[in-house]
Amino acid sequence: FAQRERVAQLKKRVEELMPKADGRSLLYRDLLAVADALVRKSVWIVGGDGWAYDIGYGGLDHVLASGRDVNVLVLDTEVYSNTGGQCSKATPRAAVAKFAAGGKPTAKKDLALMAVNYGNVYVARVAMGASDMQTVKAFLEAEKWNGPSLIIAYSHCIAHGYDMRYGLEQQKLAVQTGYWPLFRYNPALAAEGKNPFQLDSKPPALPLEKYIYNETRYTMLVHSKPEDARRLLAEAQADVMNRWRVYEQMAAMQGAPAETAQGGK
User: What DSSP element (H or E) covers 176?
Assistant: First the structure.
């Protein structure tokens, strides 16, 4: 913002000088034409989970590993929404999708934790329906960080199989059950000797079934293969608790990791 004000003052001053510039008027005109380039550009890449977790992961990983000042927003619907609801590596265990008609047998890929491993990437998992304040904080911090950032946003979708009017309520339940823990990993804190991992949601307070069985992508397996549904529910609940314990341990760590930050923008 401060730089924008300085550029505005520069342009105003140049416009005042141009009538008296004589032979330098062309130089002033050229300066006016490029003055806006003096303001830092905010670069955001926006994509879905099929791209980020799956078919485009190699490219995403290359961008995050580059150390460049680029922000990435992943709208995670947990399926290939644009092409008809096919299973992706973001699809959770027990969910039914195309190519996973019997319920996905494996756990959801933890893309956020994989990005955290770089140490110099700002990473956040957000859910607007659970905490709009945490979501806003994540975007502001990602924008401020002088390096790559990754925000993964819970995004409800018609492929989940429920009335989208209740999307924000489902987001809240996803957080309350521990399925979608909210966190921010800010490398700038590591540079200050602080723990960069901030866990922004509370421990699971509800069983996973209170969230997933509001959605057809889970309940259809209960009707078609009840025994498989019970087994996958138990495994999915274990996934939730195991992931929470890992995050809780990371949040309780003291000090900063070995790789330090580069500073703010």
Answer: helix 167-176
